[in-house]
Write a structure and sequence with these properties.
The complex is a heterodimer of chains A (113) and B (113). Chain A is mainly β and 113 residues long. Chain A is built from no helices and 11 strands. Classes of the chains: A mainly beta (113), B mainly beta (113).
Chain lengths: 113, 113
């Protein structure tokens, strides 16, 4: 059974700091990994999608990497801003899962002005 | 382009009542799914559909019914609400089984008293 773990569970940083969020998964047979952002009381907003054949994806100040063989992904946020405060979730799509996503429990990020 | 639309946003039910959570997407995605999000449990798959007329159970299907009569709509029915079904429910859709990523709705916050 695929398990996804996100570390740390919560992170508080001062504005302007560069930070890394971690996601690990137990089964490397995945199609892709997707990073989402969730604001309190809101839905999930897709940030980055990395296919299993890719090593990284970038969007603005966000960079996500994938090491499929070791079962790890990182989300790098450059020059963090208070508006980045949210919960960040990673989810993997397993090859034989019937197209179901397996989620981590998320990292709650607070960026202090 | 509305994406994935969920209604209602909030609902309070009494134990034993039934209701239907609505989900509609306008992206012509063949895959649609329902997840519930609970503290400490992450997001878990309830039911999913790979196309009109085809549905299947996910990880936590008990107490829920689904049907898929059109590509656009995927309603989730609570047959007899229980306090354990208090949760936030998310509908998601994707093209080609999630290979290009999933799009999520804004969620329905359900309380069963």
């Amino acid at each position: 059974k695929q398990e996804v773990t996100q570390i740390p569970a919560a992170l508080s940083v001062p504005e302007g700091e560069n930070l890394v969020l971690n996601c690990s998964f137990t089964d490397s047979a995945i199609y892709n990994l997707q990073w989402f952002r969730q604001d309190p009381g809101k839905g999930l907003t897709s940030l980055l999608l990395i296919q299993s054949s890719q090593r990284e994806q970038t969007s603005g100040r966000l960079n996500a990497s994938l090491d499929k063989s070791s079962g790890r992904s990182t989300l790098y946020i450059a020059a963090s801003q208070p508006g980045d405060s949210a919960t960040y979730l990673c989810a993997v799509l397993k090859e034989t899962s019937g197209s179901r996503l397996t989620f981590g429990e998320g990292t709650q990020l607070t960026v202090n002005p | 382009n509305a994406g994935v639309t969920q209604t209602p946003k909030f609902q309070v039910l009494k134990t034993g009542q039934s209701m239907t959570l609505q989900c509609a997407q306008d992206m012509n995605h063949e895959y649609m799914s329902w997840y519930r999000q609970d503290p400490g449990m992450g997001l878990r798959l309830i039911h999913y559909s790979v196309g009109a007329g085809i549905t299947d159970q996910g990880e936590v299907p008990n107490g829920y019914n689904v049907s898929r009569s059109t590509t656009e709509d995927f309603p989730l029915r609570l047959l007899s609400a229980a306090p354990s079904q208090t949760s936030v429910y998310f509908c998601a859709s994707s093209y080609s089984g999630g290979v290009y990523g999933y799009t999520f709705g804004s969620g329905t916050r359900l309380t069963v008293v």
